[in-house]
Amino acid sequence: LLSVWSSLGLDRTDRLLISSDPQALQVQINNLIQELGKTNQEVSYLKSQLSSQHHQISSCAGSTFTVWGKQSCPKVNGTELVYNGFTSGSQYNEKGNGVNTLCLPHDPENLLTTISVSTGNDYAHLYGAEYQLNIGRVRIDDNVPCAVCRTTMASSTIMIPGKRSCPIHWQKQYTGILTANWYDYQESEYLCIDNDPDYVEGSRRNENGRLFYPVKTVCGSLPCPPYENGNLLSCVVCSK
């Protein structure tokens, strides 16, 4: 009873009046119960709004990246697999085609639109990819897998060449070996192959395509130190 009096802000005179008038007390208690019910409804509404906003923020946040040389994503909290597939790109010695490297899915869906070209050769080409290095289970001419990943705990992902660690407050996704096409072939991207690479099963044949060679430093316009001539380069993929 005392707690009810305090909640209603009653002074001593009011308390004496209520204590001698049970009907008035019941009215006050009913009013208090109604107010409490309204407060609970407001709290439930605010919880619902907070949950909705949290879901919207979670669905909008995130960053995607590709792990070259792996069929799975890093075992990092908040990182999930979008899809995996086959690394592909331009033939190492063809002058045209695209310059970027792609991760082709295992389950392609054919083009439904009919198109025509001027001659039978007016097309770009897309090939698979092969390692040109031996490391762990991988051998030269093995085909290169890939995994497209999404981290829900970050909005940016970068590859840093020449490093194995990430800047402060950045999350390491994976470390690797910096690769590119051979220096006397056509240009290609510098890509970070996972340090513990996989290979596509049943693909140990020399069929060329997009080739992955390890990268060495060359002193001159590249300052040495801090770099050393002829060193292989590491790389790391970081998210924040």
TrEMBL record:
GO CC term (a single one): extracellular space
InterPro entries given in the database record: Ca-dependent_lectin
Record protein name field: Short-chain collagen C4
Source species of the chain: Magallana gigas (Pacific oyster)
